[in-house]
Specification:
By secondary structure, this protein is mainly beta. The protein is 0% helix and 50% strand. Strands 2, 4, 5, 6, 7, 10, 11 and 12 form an eight-stranded mixed beta sheet that branches. It has a four-stranded antiparallel beta sheet with strand order 1-3-9-8, with no helix packed on it. 33% of the residues are buried.
C-alpha cells in the first residue's frame, strides 16, 4: 500500500522560506503525479494543487499564487518530493498535504492517495 509522509512544516516569519518533504513509499505505479495541496479552515482543502510534478518526465505545474515563489523538486533515488517555498506570506498559512494520482499525464487535482498533512504557519 502506497504511503505518503509529509514533513517540514513549522512557524516562519513573513518573507521567510521553508522546505516541505513528501516521502513516497511502496509506489508500484510507473506513471503518476505527486503534488502539494493546501487546506485552511476557510476554504477546506483546495481542489487544485499548489504545485505538482509528474513522475516520468518531471513536468511541473504551479498554481498562480505559487508561481515564482514555490519550487517542486524530487530526489528520484529516494522517491522524495520537495516543496521549496520562498517569500511566504500570511495567506500561505495552511496545512499542506501531499497527494498522488495515478495518471499518464500531469494532473494536479483529484488525487487518489493522500498523506497526513504538515502545518505551515506564517506569522510575525
Amino acid at each position: 500500500e502506497v504511503q505518503l509522509q509529509a514533513s517540514g512544516g513549522g512557524l516562519v516569519q513573513p518573507g521567510g522560506s521553508l522546505t516541505l518533504s513528501c516521502e513516497a513509499s511502496k509506489v508500484t505505479f510507473d506513471y503518476y503525479t505527486i503534488g502539494w495541496f493546501r487546506q485552511t479552515p476557510e476554504k477546506g482543502r483546495e481542489a487544485v494543487g499548489v504545485a505538482c510534478m509528474s513522475s516520468d518526465d518531471g513536468q511541473t505545474y504551479y498554481q498562480g499564487s505559487a508561481k515564482g515563489r514555490f519550487t517542486i523538486s524530487r530526489d528520484s533515488g529516494n522517491n522524495i518530493y520537495y516543496l521549496q517555498m520562498n517569500n511566504l506570506q500570511a495567506e500561505d498559512t495552511a496545512i499542506y498535504y501531499c497527494g498522488l494520482k495515478t495518471t499518464w499525464a500531469l494532473k494536479c487535482y483529484d488525487m487518489d492517495i493522500w498523506g497526513k498533512g504538515t502545518l505551515v504557519t506564517v506569522s510575525s
